[in-house]
Design goal:
alpha/beta; 281 residues; 7-stranded mixed beta sheet; single chain
Length: 281
């Protein structure tokens, strides 16, 4: 109905508890991240299970792009017997914490971490596997990012991606818990400016500085992702959509049918788990 009416339609549904300043959010993140081996191993098992086919990472040199605190990278060494893992992230305190966790886990000889942007990273030789976990929907220029990942892998190596929810899917606006009622496709049904005004007022005050964009999301469609990997000649080894629905067989079957329908797949593809092989030459 437009920004004014939609704002007041949605306003009663907002939890005021969501209000956070930038300082509040920074303090929350800086206090998190202790090394919990069992939890990190469980994350790896969940990731590998959702990839659809057992990816053999034994003896590989793996690059974790956007490694965060490094817990997933370290767990890959322990759970999947990766030979060596390198983690990169452009947030310095993440890397500082990752190095501390590496020492605590006794894995200094098998893991290394660097604070660097992936586009500026120049390794001495390409990797067997490059992993991007829960990041692609946040990358501003996803096609360039995928091209950069591919350039860091040896010919015939693997690019492993796990990302979502995608913006156009039922709850792809990444605002779960912000509203009292979960309205599917909220970001598409209601005026974007109205939602961003509510987000700026009741969630993160810095968001009001960029009112014309969805903060932190690139709004990439699943169809666009397929076009990107096709342009890079990446061959799917495994492509699993919405694996979180496997525990509910009827929903899993419905999801599979809808995701295979071209006109609907952009609106029902919530998460993507893909193993892609780079060209041999």
């Amino acid at each position: 109905f437009g920004p004014f009416i939609d704002y007041w339609l949605l306003r009663p549904l907002v939890h005021s508890r969501n209000l956070k300043t930038v300082e509040d959010l920074d303090a929350f993140h800086s206090d998190s991240g202790d090394w919990e081996e069992s939890a990190a191993r469980a994350r790896v098992r969940k990731l590998i299970g959702r990839l659809g086919s057992k990816v053999d990472l034994r003896g590989t040199r793996l690059l974790d792009v956007g490694c965060g605190l490094g817990d997933l990278a370290l767990a890959l060494l322990l759970e999947e017997d990766v030979e060596h893992v390198t983690g990169i992230d452009n947030i310095e305190w993440f890397i500082t914490k990752a190095k501390i966790l590496t020492k605590e886990a006794g894995l200094e000889g098998r893991a290394s971490f660097r604070c660097v942007d992936v586009h500026d990273y120049r390794p001495k030789r390409p990797f067997d596997v490059v992993l991007s976990h829960e990041a692609l929907e946040h990358i501003e220029r996803p096609q360039e990012f995928l091209e950069r990942l591919t350039s860091l892998v040896r010919p015939g190596g693997l690019v492993v991606l796990a990302f979502g929810p995608l913006f156009h899917s039922p709850f792809g606006d990444h605002m779960n818990g912000f509203f009292r009622v979960r309205v599917p496709w909220r970001g598409l049904l209601f005026n974007r400016k109205a939602i961003l005004q509510l987000r700026a007022r009741f969630f993160r005050v810095s968001d009001e500085q960029i009112p014309d964009r969805w903060p932190g999301l690139n709004l990439m469609r699943y169809t666009e992702f397929l076009q990107y990997i096709d342009a890079l000649s990446l061959q799917p080894v495994s492509m699993v959509l919405n694996p979180q629905l496997r525990r509910i067989p009827i929903l899993d079957k419905i999801s599979a049918t809808l995701c295979s329908t071209p006109v609907l797949r952009d609106y029902v593809t919530m998460s993507v788990y893909a193993v892609l092989r780079t060209p041999n030459q």
